[in-house]
């Protein structure tokens, strides 16, 4: 029986799901948090540029709330990350996991032919590796 390729050798595009979730450029932190809940995601891009320049995550929202500032009045861009890390849709899951570890990040944007194809989270990768582990155990 031929062996299946390891999950880590699959292209990241196999776990890139829905289109990139976005909020408008002047969104508040509360707007971004509500959009994350509505889209069931942990990070969301700010603005409608073809090539996003800012991303806000659940952790960014928590950090702001912990300071006591009002998320309804603080612009999302004020707490968002602007040092975005990208990977190509053809990169393997292992390559992307290593890139995320190198940059100590939980979310990475996926590029396909110069267009954002999705956002992959550490949780997404954990799901892939856990599924493979389950197959190995059975």
UniProtKB/TrEMBL annotation:
<dbReference type="InterPro" id="IPR051257">
    <property type="entry name" value="Diverse_CBS-Domain"/>
</dbReference>
<protein>
    <submittedName>
        <fullName>Hypoxic response protein 1</fullName>
    </submittedName>
</protein>
<dbReference type="InterPro" id="IPR000644">
    <property type="entry name" value="CBS_dom"/>
</dbReference>
<keyword id="KW-0129">CBS domain</keyword>
<feature type="domain" description="CBS">
    <location>
        <begin position="80"/>
        <end position="135"/>
    </location>
</feature>
<dbReference type="Pfam" id="PF00571">
    <property type="entry name" value="CBS"/>
</dbReference>
<feature type="domain" description="CBS">
    <location>
        <begin position="12"/>
        <end position="71"/>
    </location>
</feature>
<dbReference type="InterPro" id="IPR046342">
    <property type="entry name" value="CBS_dom_sf"/>
</dbReference>
């Amino acid at each position: 029986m031929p062996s299946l390729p390891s999950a880590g050798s699959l292209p990241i595009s196999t776990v890139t799901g829905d289109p990139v979730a976005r909020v408008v450029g002047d969104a508040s932190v509360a707007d971004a948090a509500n959009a994350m809940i509505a889209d069931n995601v942990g990070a969301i891009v700010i603005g409608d540029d073809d090539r996003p320049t800012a991303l806000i995550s659940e952790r960014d929202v928590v950090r702001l709330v912990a300071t006591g500032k009002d998320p309804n009045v603080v612009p999302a861009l004020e707490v968002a990350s602007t040092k975005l890390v990208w990977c190509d849709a053809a990169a393997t899951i292992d390559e992307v996991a290593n890139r995320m570890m190198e940059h100590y990040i939980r979310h990475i944007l996926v590029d396909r032919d110069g267009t954002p194809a999705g956002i992959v989270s550490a949780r997404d990768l954990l799901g892939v590796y856990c599924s493979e582990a389950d197959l190995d155990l059975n």
